[in-house]
Amino acid sequence: MYGLKKMLELEEKKLKNIKQKIDESLESAPEGKIRISSTGSYPMFFHCTNENSKSREIGEYITKDKRDIIKPLVQKEYDQKMKRTVEKRLNQIQRLNAKYDDKELEEIYNRLHPMKQRFVIPYEKPWQQKVTAWKLVPYTGKAFEPGTPEIYTKKGERVRSKSEKLIADTLFEMGIEYKYECPIYLKGYGQVFPDFTILSRKTGKEMYWEHEGRMDDPQYSEKAVRKINSYFYNDILPGDRLILTFETLGTVLNDRTIKKMIDSYLL
Question: Are residues 51 and 143 in the same domain?
Answer without folding.
Answer: no
